[in-house]
Amino acid sequence: MPEPRETAVYTHGHHESVLRSHTWRTAANSAAYLLPSLKPHMRILDIGCGPGTITADLAELVPDGRVTGVDRAPEILEQARATAAGRGLTNVDFAVADVHALDYPDDTFCVVHAHQVLQHVGDPVRALREMKRVVRPGGLVAVRDADYEAMTWYPASDGLDAWLDLYRRVARANGGEPDAGRRLKAWALRAGLTDITATSGTWTFATPQERAWWSGLWADRTLASAYADRAVEGGHTDAAGLRGAAEAWREWGTREDGWFSVLHGEILCRKEA
Question: What is the dihedral sign for C-alpha 211, 213, 216, 218?
């Protein structure tokens, strides 16, 4: 087998504006499709765990089991460990890992979970094959990813149209697939998974507080994160273009009638026994 290779660059990085979003995520708002399948004894692998908020929630839901959170970025795992420690959890651990080549034996976990991961990897089909390999027969591979082209908002905004076009170009130039949500089932089939339940879920931002939070973090991310650097260095835009996108976000956030929805594809795949 050829040596595993990660061909994508993580578009967002770990700027504060990115973590503002990641630390908001919970099992309830980001993995609801999986929760009815969890049992107290389960052993779970949480891939791309980031700052560990979903990981910690999963650990609380399997008190007689164990959750392992993995991420490619060692620095973010320190925050994940602090998240778990702050909640007094003892059934969770963290490690550096590449989803293309997981350092776990076959048939190890009851559930392998990944939230907002496959849109950023170089080979999502290979990643799903690895997830399938390390899950036990009868166990579950659970994946949820946003679909950027399907994001929708009101009122219409030329500035946000330009932001979305720019983001999708940058993400693809980095080796990822920003419209991953719609592709999850197809990727799972190509990875050899057959018992697949495909669903969708949304995040919606409509209250004044939600609009301020969502627009603020995207305006800041557009100006100051690794995404901003890659957008300029890759020749996709310039500083003025980034400022224009950030201003469009802030203007939308002030609109009393503003509404924004993020569509996610979800797959729950049971490995054949």
Answer: negative
Number of H helices, E strands in the chain: 10, 8
* CA-CA-CA-CA dihedral for 48, 81, 84, 40, to nearest 10: 50
What would the two tokens of residue 160 be?
A: 């946000």
Which are the contacts of 207, defined by CB distance < 8 A and separation ≥ 6?
Answer: none
Angle formed by the axes of helices 74-86 and 53-61, nearest 10°: 40
Q: Answer yes or no: are the C-beta atoms of 209 and 130 closer than 8 Å.
A: no
| DSSP secondary structure of 213-237 | HHHHHHHHHHHHSHHHHHHHHTTS-
Q: Would you give per-residue pLDDT tens digits along the chain (273 residues)? A: 333 334 455 455 555 655 676 889 999 999 999 999 999 999 999 999 999 999 999 999 999 999 999 999 899 999 999 999 999 999 999 999 999 999 999 999 999 999 999 999 999 999 999 999 999 999 999 999 999 999 999 999 999 999 999 999 999 999 999 999 999 999 999 999 999 999 999 999 999 999 999 999 999 999 988 888 899 999 999 999 999 999 999 999 999 999 999 999 999 999 998
φ and ψ at residue 91, rounded to 5 degrees: -105, 35
Instruction: Name the 3-class secondary structure at 272.
Output: coil
User: How many Cβ atoms from other residues are within 10 Å of residue 81's Cβ?
Assistant: 16
* Alpha-helical segments (H) within the chain: 16-22, 27-30, 53-61, 74-86, 124-134, 158-173, 184-190, 208-224, 226-233, 239-253
Q: How far apart are CA 225 and CA 65, in angstroms?
A: 37
Tell me the pTM: 0.93
Picking from 46, 57, 61, the residue whose alpha carbon sits closest to that of residue 109 is: 46
Instruction: Give the torsion through C-alpha atoms of 175, 153, 201, 219, to 10 deg.
Output: 50
